[in-house]
Design brief:
The chain is mainly α and 206 residues long. It starts with a helix and ends in a 6-residue tail after the last helix.
Length: 206
């Protein structure tokens, strides 16, 4: 039983790692985009495009990490293994992501609602609420529509957080299933050991 719990914790950890890597990447270039492109393209649009590209990168990372996890589970270890294990781990990660997201939204709405005649405090509130959901800036913008005059940041609410993060489930679930069943997206053998390790988790043994 202990091994079964630990292996699910490990799989959930891989899902969380890939997601929070996506969060960090989503925020990393935000100041640069705001400064470099503010005279060329609206910051709202440029950030939407950037986070969409970043989300696609996240999907690849999540797939690769869970593919490797699934491949390792093919070996005769003393713990539970089944094709939908990646989905179960992704669901646990989804719950934890939204638990953190809900806490941030709650704290932002409780303590960062300040009315001032000269400063737009609503923008700070918007930034805090979206901090965990930044990889989905593009989707939240599509849901909300045109930017508000006071707060151009799309609103991250409890319901929207639950809905947009559902997109975190397919990639790790599919990646684990592919690895567990010994399938690969790239059929041709890669010559570089680095690329084999990156794409297939570990170099193919001859």
């Amino acid at each position: 039983m202990k091994n079964n719990i630990l292996t699910h914790v490990k799989g959930t950890g891989w899902c969380l790692l890939s997601y929070f890597m996506g969060v960090i990447l989503s925020w990393a270039a935000y100041p640069l985009i705001m400064i470099a492109l503010h005279n060329i393209i609206a910051p709202d649009l440029s950030q939407s495009i950037y986070t969409l590209v970043n989300f696609l990168i996240y999907l690849i990372i999540a797939y690769l990490l869970l593919h490797g996890f699934g491949e390792r589970d093919r070996k005769p270890y003393n713990w539970v293994r089944y094709p939908l294990k990646g989905l179960v781990c992704a669901l646990f990660a989804w719950l934890l992501i939204n638990a953190v997201g809900f806490l941030v939204i709650f704290l932002a709405n409780k303590y960062v609602i300040v009315h001032h005649p000269k400063f737009v405090i609503e923008t700070l509130n918007g930034y805090l609420r979206i901090v965990v959901y930044m990889p989905f800036y593009w989707l939240l913008r599509l849901i909300e529509g045109a930017p508000h005059e006071l707060c151009p940041i799309p609103s991250a609410t409890y319901l929207r957080g639950l809905l947009v993060t559902l997109l975190t489930l397919p990639a790790p679930a599919f990646g684990y299933w592919m690895g567990f069943t010994g399938r690969r997206v790239f059929k041709r053998e890669l010559k570089s050991p680095f690329l084999r390790r990156l794409v297939y988790s570990e170099p193919k043994k001859r």
